[in-house]
Amino acid sequence: MQLHPHVAALSDLCREHRRTLHRIPEIGLTEHQTQAYLLGVLRILQPDVLQTLSPTGIKAVFYAKDAADTIAFRADMDGLHVQEETGAEYASIRDGFMHACGHDGHMTVLLLLAKLLSDNRDALRSNIVLLFQPGEEGFAGAKLMIEQGALENPHVDRIYGLHVWPTVPYGKIGVRWGYMMANSCEFDIFVHGKSAHGASPQMGVDAVVAAAELITLLQTIITRSLDPHQDALLTIGKITGGSARNVIADRVELNGTLRSFSAQNYDTIVEKVRSMAAGLATATGAKFEFDSLMSYPCLENPRPMVEDFYRYISMQDIELVEPVMAAEDFSYYQQMIPGLFLFLGTLDDENKQPLHNACFDFKEDVLLNGVEVFRRLAMNEPLI
Questions:
Q1: Is 76 a catalytic residue?
Q2: Quick one: which of 243, 334, 347, 356 has the most CB atoms within 10 Å?
Q3: Full-prediction pTM beyond 0.90?
């Protein structure tokens, strides 16, 4: 991608910001040191508005003199419960925590964009809102930001976000219209039985056996209850239960995830889970409790925004991507206003590890491509 000279000149600052942020990962809604670092940088750049949103979010606004509209750009802030194994000299200083999903890179892109906006205020044609959002990893931080007025004062007309993506070639911008990322629901199922001595199973209700029966039944939902042309998945990733090898278990906990690209399919799957549990309750005497945790809507890019985006980026820099089953709470913004989400490719010969992997890493200079894309959108500079 052809970088503007002002963007290319930010290479050293890009590395500094990214590595500083990478060293201090914090779990969603607790990003206090991260917030302090971001605020320190932003105060020097003097946006017209610099506001903190509870618990750790930031909203910065740069006003244009004669703005026709308002554009927002969003970066997520949180790290993960992952023990870093990259061996990098800038590795996490927090044992058991890591920026394994690239959010350190997303924040860096927005900090560099803020630098460009601060240095070129007179060239702004739109009001620009920068949102540093906590808690994307399962805490629906986007929803919290919206509830606190992130998209108002000034009212945001459209919003952009990006995510570093290790299956898209280095430096390419991945995009598609329509569904791009899945509806996601994390759920728990609690199976309640009755304990008894293992030598007298007839005196109890075995929660382990009831849970095993349910797991087997759940595997038929996707293959027998949904149109095979519709993508969806249901995974039980964790099982906890029992107290001893010779005791009939009175409680088992199943932790799972549900993904789909259709609200109708989502409802169908949840209904099937509940009906299967009810049937097994009658058959086994166990009781089943289904607890739906945080659910993210599908991320869906509006076709008009994608077509307009093509005016800003050369087709040789674009990778048309397939939908992925990962979820993104950027979709909450899309429920409110038009929003476009992009993948920033990081795949090269040295960096092939997937997101959330303990060895995930990328070359920082790729972030300058993200800055360049956001700069063109912010400054309304389509390709000639």
A1: yes
A2: 334
A3: yes
